[in-house]
Fold:
Amino acid sequence: MLFNSWEFAVLLAVTFVLYYAPWSRGRHGKAWQVTLALAASVVFYGWKDPRLIILLAVSCVGNSVATARIILHKVAGDEARVKHWTRLAVILNLALLAIFKYAPFVVGMIPFLPQSWVQAVKGIPLPIGISFYTFHGISMIVDVARGEVTREGDAMLSKGGRFAKGVRDIGFYLLFFPQLVAGPIVKAKQFWPQIAAKRFEAIPWMFVIRALILGYFLKVFVADNLAEQTRALTTPDLVGLSTSGPLFLVPLLYGYGLQIFADFGGYSLIALGLAALFGYKFPENFNFPYLSTSITEFWRRWHMSLSAWLRDYLYIPLGGNRKGEGRTYLNLFLVMFLGGLWHGAEWKFAIWGTLHGLLLAVERFFTRRRGKLEENPGRSPIRALCGWIYTFHAVTLLWLTFLMPDMAHVRAFLKGVTCGQYHMSGPPVFSLLFYGTAVVFYHAWGWGREHRPGLSAKLHGPFSEGMVHALMLFLLITNPGAPSGFIYFQF
Amino acid sequence: MACLLAGLAACFAVQSFLIRRTGGRTTKSESNYFSSIARLQSGIRGAPQVMFLGSSITGRLPDRSRGFNGVANLGCDGGSAMETLRAMDAGIIPRAPYLIIEGNTFYRAVGAEETDVAKAMHKPWFRRGVALPNLSAAGRPSSMAYTLLMERKMGASSPDIEPFPVITQPTLSPRPQPTSKAEDALLEEAVGILRRLTTAGSKITLIMFPPGAEPSSPNRRLPEELARRAGLPFWDLANAVPPGMVRFTDGVHMDPPSATAAVRTIFKATGYPSALSPE
Structure:
C-alpha cells in the first residue's frame, strides 16, 4: 500500500478513529492501541501480496524469541550466552536478507551452476522493505544485548507469562506502518521507551500538519512530476540515449538529483507526521542535504537514520577510527561499500557506495593533512561555496550509477553528454525549473535557518507560514504528478 | 490555520480566473500525459459537435477554447486515435456527430498495450476533473505556465486565418493496401468501432495531417486501408496543400497559424456545420 493511495487514506482514517476511541483510555489502552496499530500495519504491508506477511511473521517471532533469550541471560548475568544468542540472531537476520535479496545476485556470478538452479534462485521474490525490517531486527537484538533498551522493556519480557505481549510489542516495533517499508530506521533504544498508551490531546497537530503537507508536497508535486521526465534516462533505447546530447541529458540528471531527495525526503516527512499522529517520535532522516559542503557532511544530512545505523552497528564494531589510519580508511570503504549494496543486490549500487566511500576517504586524508579533522572545511564563505559546488555536483553525478538500470546505460549517458547533438528539449528544462525550484527554496529556507537565524525568525510568522503551506496544499491538489511508488520502497 | 484556509481560497480564486482566461484548456503541458488528459477532460465537457481524435499532431489544432465553437480536441500525445475511439465505443467518453480522425499515428496502436492515458479515462479522478475544471489537468499551474511560454515562443492561434488552397478533396479510397497479421487485427477492431459509431449517427472522416508520410509507410498505408474497409472518406491533407504553405515548430507539429488554417480547410472541404466557424 502506498502513502499516496486512496486505500491508505481509508486505512489511516479507520485506524486513527479506533486508535483514540473512548475505550483506549481504559486500563487496557496500551494493549488496544498497540494491537490495533499492529493489525493496521499487517494490512498495510500485506495489501498487495498477503504472502509477504509470512516472512515478516518469521522475522518477528524469531527476533522475539532471541530478544527474550538475551534478556533472560542478561538478567542471569550470563554474558557468554548473551553473546551467543546475539550472534545467532544477527546471523539469522542477515540470512533472511541474504536469501531474499542477495541470493539471486550471487548465483548469477557463480560459473557452472545448472541453469535451472540459477533460474529457481532468481525467481525468489524480493519482499518489500526487507532491508528496513531486518535492520530494525538487528537493532532490537543489539540494543537489548548492550543493555540500551529501557528497564521497562526488559521487565516486560523477562517476567513469566508475558512473552506474548513481548512478541506483540516487538512486532509493533518491527512493523509499525509509517516506517515499515522505507524507514526512517528507528533504533530499538529510541522506539521501545515510547511504547505506551497515547492520548488524543497529546497529538502535536502543528507538527503533524506541517510534516504531512510538506511531505506530500515534495512527493506528489515535486518528485512525481520530475519522475515523468527523468524516466527518459532509463529508456531501453541506448542508441537514442547516446545521441540525446548534453542539453537534454544534463537537466534530467540534475532533475533526478532533486527528485530522489523530494521522493525520499517527502516519504520520511510523511512517516514522521504519521508516527506523530499516533503518538510516536521518529528521528529526522534529512537535514537539508544539498546544503552540504563536503561528502562527509552530506552523509550527516542525507538518510541520517541509515548513516547512524551503519555507524552504530557496523563502523564502530569494526573499530571505527580507533585502530589507526589504515584501518579507518578500510572501515570507511567497507561501510560505504556495504551501505551501497544494502540499497540493492547489483554492482551499480556497490559502485555508487564505493565511490562515495572513496570521496569520504580522500576528504579525510586532506583534512587530516591540514590537521583540521574536527573543523568544518567550509568555514570561509568562498571555501564553503567551493565545497558546496563540489559536493552538489559530485553527489549529482554519482546518482547516475544509482539511477541507471545497468552500466551500459551509464556509458550511453556519458557518450550522449560528450558526443550527442546540441538540441534543447523544452519539457526537461521547464520541469527542472518549475518543480526543482521548490527544492531550491526548501534548502534556501534551511540555509537561512542555519546561517541567518534572526532573519529567518522574523520571516517565520503565522501569516507567512499559513500562506506557504496553503500554496503547497494547493499545488499538491491541483498539480500532482502521475502517481508512482516511492523510490526507496524497492530497497 | 485561518491563514492556511485563506491562502488556499486565494490560490483557488486565482486559478479559477486563469482557467477562464485560457478558455478552459491549455494547449500543451510539459507532460505528455497531462497534456492529453487536459484535452480529454475539457474536450468532452458540454456537447461538442466535432471531435478531432489523434495524437499530439491533432493536439495542436485549435478548438472551442481558441474560438472554434463546438469543436473538441482529443489529441493524445504519444498515442493515437485508437485510445479515444475505444473509450468512445465503450461509452466512457461521449461521441460527437462529426468525428475527424488523424491517420498519421494510427500505426502506433498495432500490437500496443493499453496506454496510461487510456487507463486514466477509467479512473474516478478523471471524471472529477471533467466536472470540476479546477481539479482538471487544464487547471494545473504548470500546464498554464507551459502554455504561456509556448504561445510566447510560437504565437497563439487566431481564428481569422484563411483556409489553405487545396488541390484534392476527401474521397473514398479504392486501393487495398498490404497489411500484416497484427495490422489486420487492429483494423478489424477499428472497423467494428467505426461502423458502430456511424450507425449511431456520427459522420467520420480520416485525415493525414501535414507533414504526411511516405505512401508505403505504415503511417500512410494503415489509415488508408482503414478508410477503405470501413467505407469512410480519406483525405491526405499533407499532399493536398501546396508545398511550403504549412509551417512546423519541430518538423512534425504544425505551428498555431498553420494548425488553424488546417482546421478551417477541413471544415470547408467536408462541409461540416457552419456553426463551427470561428466565433
